[in-house]
Hints:
This protein is of the alpha+beta class. Helix content is 48%, strand content 10%.
Amino acid sequence: MRIPDHIVEQVRTQANIVDVIGEHVRLRKAGRNWLGLCPFHTEKTPSFNVNLERGIYKCFGCGRAGNAIGFVQEFHHMGFADAVRHLAQKMGIVIPDETAEDPTGLGPRRDAARAALREAADYYVELLTTPEGAVARTMFERRGFSPETLTTWKLGASPSAWDSLSQHLSSRGYTTEQLNDAGLIVVREDGRFYDRFRGRAMFPIRDDQGRVVGFSARSLTTDPASPKYVNSPQGLVFDKSRVLYGLDLAKRSITEVRTAIVVEGQADVVAMHQAGFRTTVASSGTAFTEDHVRLLKKYADTIIVIYDADSAGQTATSRAIEIALAGGLDVRCVSLPAGTDPDSLIRSQGREAMETLVHDAKGWLTWRTERFLAEGVSNDSVRQAAAVRTMLEWISRIPDALRRPFYVRELAAVFGLPDGLLLDQLLSMGHSDRPSSPRHGQQQQNITAAPTSGSIPSATSSSPSPATPPLSHHQRTQQQHQSPHSPLAPERELLRVALFVTDGLAMLLHEFHVDDETFVSEAGQRLFRRILIADAEHHDILQHVLNDEQLHPQERQYVADLAFAAVTPSVSWERFNVDMPAANHARPVRDALISLEIIRLSQQVDVLSRTLDDVKDVDAKLRLVNDVRQLLQHRDELLKKRSDMSDDTPWQPGATPSPSLPSA
């Protein structure tokens, strides 16, 4: 259910960030800030700063930044609402029920189902210690699970009777509907019901917040009629495509190395963790899905897939590669010896054998091509072409365009094909990531180049001379590969003034007529729009923007970076009777606006330059050349104007250097 805005605001304003972070990080006073070792990366010299006055933190080692709610989200790997509830509970702030926000009435049903699941897990754990749990206990011991492991994973046993659990929970006030919502019982057509899990070893499945959402129950008999595993059904609480077994215990370790190990079964996860591979997770009774990728992306950049060596495991590995690549994860693969799984391998060959396999995990392209070759593809040209086309399809779906050409070259080398042929195939799949290459025997013009006012290409020239780009190569590359969530350098100055200069936002709006269209990048436009909304709806613009869920986490971190850069002189200067000059905020704003217009003009020149080669009509081409000339003339005037203003410092970056302006 949605948390009321006034409660979020109360939590945000009342949370003492030094106290919140001080529970997990040893902080010491250092001037205006508090200093400690960063909890998000390993360091020996403290670089983690907490500013009580602004209510923000910033690590100058790894770049993590935010406010109290953001720290709880990051440290405990919680969602925004859960982080607010966590802080509210600590501060004694009551969050009222908002049934109006839940017209379906499913919220209370979910809460009751989770409570029933939690009590069922405790019941199964307790039963494991009794004579009735002896068979399950023996099975766990045979797998080498220690008592500490049983406790950590809350492994248990279900009774053999048809209604033991349901009677236990009914005695504690749970209704048949609530037990059915939890997936703990099976209701027959005549309304009678029985326990879903009976006489099995129980693996509770928890979500990434550590809440029990279901169970995987392993058979303890050799009866072929008894399924090996019985899992909780899809329902109000359990969605197998959105849960990764072990993630609640693995996410901290995954975050540290940005790599997760993905296996198939719950027992494999438990065995891997016990052996020290604490980044291991598994899908719960389903194949690896897009939702699993989105879940892992919060913690990892790479996954290492370790599925069974049989044909089903190999097929599942291929599917996992395809889905993970499309979701932006890099993939490495481990090939297990035939007839083994991670659990049995560790028991039979020891931890060192698994450590070697993980260390030597192959890149997905190498693994997949080796599988193709092992299947006899090299003896059949038709199958070779199909194999190459399959991997090109996978490559074409990789979000990072810069990675695709490298994979294409690697694939071409493996199959002895020309790079250009595969790049053309990739292009036909809808991606224009191929670099410029000779066309029809002539050297194609670099379409990113734009002529200067003194060097306009001839309208009839078929081979124009190289032209000077409007931006330097470094800055053009920086813009082309810039994160979509990072504003440009001059936009940073406008955002700084809007957020941290007294009446700065009013100055931008009324004196310089700045609006979101003034910004060139999407990130700049989006941030400025959210600042305007925060100004209209909230008293503390900075805190609202830092918690704005409409912004990407990288954009919120960008704002936190600005906050730490916007350092004011210490009051200690007053003791030295030094007159601090008033900051000239209008000057850097004017300079930034000129720079943005230069960038905008350069982009327009680029667009027109790209069309010149394709225009066949001479008159039309002359008109385009004239348009380019006028744009360049305007750009040169602005460059001169900016140069004439260079006698004063154009930027006021604060404590950290601001990126330099684009140069012509």
